[in-house]
Amino acid sequence: MEALDRYEDRGLPFVAFLFRIARNAAIDKSRRTRPDMSIDELVNHPESGQNVEAEAARSIERDVLFNAMSKLKPDYREVLLLRFVEGYGAADVGRMTGRSEGAVRTLQHRAVDRLRKELDRMGELSLFERFSGADAAE
User: Fold this and answer.
1) Residue 108 within any structural domain of the chain
2) What is the Cα–Cα distance from 11 to 75, expressed in whole angstroms?
3) What is the rounded distance in angstroms from the CA atom of residue 59 to the CA atom of residue 14?
């Protein structure tokens, strides 16, 4: 809330300024706390009705993807998260980040390509190929 005093009208929507504050707060929080996900806990509680193998595989995939995403430029991570996780359109992302729709699409293309290369470098290209339907939203 203290950032509201620093708002300067630069011709961008006020909501973009608020989004930037929320984004930075979320990044700060995620740096401070990372949820503990123990495969041992999943294995020890099979009566919960969870598919332990599928949940463990998803946990591993999340860790691999998190690791690959952490190696991307912050702008690449931001556009991938807004487009594919949050589900915003390129025009909306552009308004939030102060970019044109075309610039968002270009950044998205580069981010997807860089993520593919990073997963390939990690030996996890099959993870990208399985979810490659994501770049249909380009």
Assistant:
1) yes
2) 21
3) 37
Please provide the size of the chain in residues. Answer: 138
Q: How many degrees, rounded to 5, is the angle at CA 99 between CA 135 and CA 92? A: 60
pLDDT, the chain, mean: 77
Q: What is the pLDDT of residue 100?
A: 95
- Distance in angstroms (rounded) separating the CA atoms of residues 92 and 64: 28
Separation CA 128–CA 132 (nearest Å): 6
Output the domain CATH number for residue 125: 1.10.10.10
Angle between helices 101-121 and 90-97 (to 10 degrees): 100
Query: What Cα–Cα distance (Å) separates residue 63 from each residue in 42, 53, 70, 106?
Result: 16, 15, 10, 27
pTM: 0.57
Domain hosting residue 71, numbered range: 64-137
- pLDDT tens, 78-118? 998 888 888 889 999 999 899 999 999 999 999 999 988 99
